[in-house]
Amino acid sequence: MPRIVCVALMLLAAGRPGYALSIMGGQPRFELSSDILQLPAPGRPGVLRVFVSGSYAPSQVGRVELQLPPDLVVIRGELTRTVHTHPDSADSHWDVVFQPSHYGLFRITGSLSVDVDARYGRDEMEFEMELYAGQDTTWERPSHALRYERVVGSQRYRYGGDYLVPIAQSERVVIDDIVQPAQVVQSASATCGSCSLSEANGSVRMLVFLDASGEIVETRALPRELPTGQVALPDSDVIAAARETLRNWSFSASRTATMPVADFVIVTVDVRH
Fold first, then answer.
1. DSSP 8-state secondary structure symbol assigned to residue 44
2. Which helix (H) or strand (E) holds 244?
């Protein structure tokens, strides 16, 4: 996206409650991960290094909860901890020493919760990693995120790349899990008798949030670049006409490999006088 458009999105968002939440900030700025510093062996424990980072104020803290299966016996280290999220903080990483009680495959999971303030809300994420401890070989599968979400008031969002996607409940889905994006199934042009000829005989790009059934949850007009180089939203009558017409559109929901999920799609609505 051109820089001038990005700047305009921020300025246009500033005057509309909730608009900045959906338009900006679809990329998570926080992370919880782990790595095996020392693989366990007979008579030798393993060492798990836990990392927390976040682009918040230096004083911001988060709550970490690690879950190790009962057969990974913890010798030393905290599984639940409140830490500063700044990556340079002394408490943003620590070690957990453990010993498997038998050979086999073990799954380690963890969660991070960061309460910022009432306006921003709360960031949440989960990760998992796998460890195999065998008689002849031991290996780890690197940690990977299961979900990145934000909660503002009673509304939960998934970090969806370009935008925050409204979701009904927490779900273990990240953007890379989506294998089939949302699609337009049926469309129609908009009619705007109250619009000027210059505004009506054109088009408007609309951001459409869909639920897991492909039903519209919310629609927003996207700014457009004018011949002068400035960026602005279309006329309000044009936006209203486009929104009304979208009621008659139909969509198929985005899908992971196993299920449909809430997501967004950007469409162009033609507007006629």
1. B
2. helix 236-246
Question: Which domains, and CATH codes, for the chain?
Answer: 30-156 (2.60.40.830), 178-273 (3.30.2420)
pLDDT digits (tens, 9 = 90+) for 227-256: 788 888 888 988 999 999 999 999 999 999
On whether the CB atoms of residues 135 and 103 are closer than 8 A, the answer is yes
Q: What is the pTM of this model?
A: 0.86
- CA-closest candidate to residue 164, choices 26, 4, 14, 66: 26
Which of 9, 101, 89, 6 minimizes the C-alpha distance to 52? 89
Which residues, 6+ apart, have CB-to-CB distance to 259 below 8 Å? 212
- DSSP conformation class of 189: -
CB atoms within 10 A of CB 247: 9
- Go through 20-57 and write b for each residue having 16 or more CB atoms within 10 A of its CB, e for each that does not: bbbbebbebebbbbbebeebbeeeebbbbebebbbebe
**∠ Cα 233 234 235 (to 5°):** 120
Query: 50 - beta bridge partners?
Result: 34, 94
